[in-house]
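EI: anyone free to look at a 366-residue chain?
SC: sure, send it
EI:
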Amino acid sequence: MKWIARTALLAIAACLLLAPFARAADAQQWVVYPGGDGPGKGKQIVLVSGDEEYRSEEVMPQLGKILATEHGFKCTVLFAVDPKTGEINPKTLNNIPGIEALDSADLMIILTRFRALPDDQMKHVDDYLKAGKPVIGLRTATHAFNGLKGTYEKYNNGYHGSEKEWTDGFGRLVLGERWVSHHGNHKSESTRALFAPDANGNPLLNGIKDGEIWTPTDVYGVRLPLPGDAKPLLLGQVVKRKGPAKKDTEDPFYGMSPTDNEPVGPTTDKNGKTTDKNNPMMPVAWTKSYQLPGGKPGKSFATTMGSATDITNEALRRLLVNATYSLLDMKVPDKAKVDLVGDYKPTAFGFDGFKKGMKPADFELK
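SC: here you go
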């Protein structure tokens, strides 16, 4: 019996000794950029990544570093993590550890795609939104969730259940649109963002010139008009690629270039049907208010741009920083500093193209 008691005591002692290491391991499932001096000092932003196509696991750390180092915000970046390996794996649809950071967040920036998180993780998202706190949604955030069952089924892209206020899910209710379509040709027609009518002078466009934003990702289709008080800021001109895609290279732009300036014109198919992708042009950035049933009113900003390659565009980075200030009711800088932090070499968008073996700690500030 003494041997059993001694063994039990040793086991308890081992657990106590290992507990700090377990907590440290947990902390490495996300990354925190402390921020500091700057207008954002004292405010916390949580950046939620998790998509299989547009390299959100590269976008969010870079955006977080800019907001922390240049503007003073404390930024917590979350990832889709494989619980078996601790590695970032966008194909892990049901695990974004650290999402409880939303409980104390001032702003959520989200770029996820078709996530099916467990209830204990979704509760933090739901509580955040019911509190009416601000949201910035990038690219596939219009279809951020899918495959959810039970309490949070209403968040699913294209939801058409009994809760009518939630028709079409999180994307439509909070951001203003769900997944609809590729409007431009994927990987061959890029996006030139033009000021929407009456948008000139909007503080969110401070320091940005009309047409200065160009992204290699294509324009998404949306249903017009956008719902409620959604107000377009930028319209996406579908632009032709000048030449063929480069072969056998690591070109992440698929042969497209910021110097591609020729809009796609009307086309007629073999049945005589004419399509003009630039008439009307689709909104690619807009503001909106939202309110969950039983929750407080809040504000959102959405853009269908935002891949890892897209944010090589300085003006797009400035738009996202401007939106951060605006949604936090802070004065938007005349021309926000948005220099890339560190050596940023984005991976091409596309399925199964994410960098294997990466862990959250790999994105810490050096």
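EI: Residues 1-5, 7-25 have pLDDT under 50 and may be disordered.
SC: 👍
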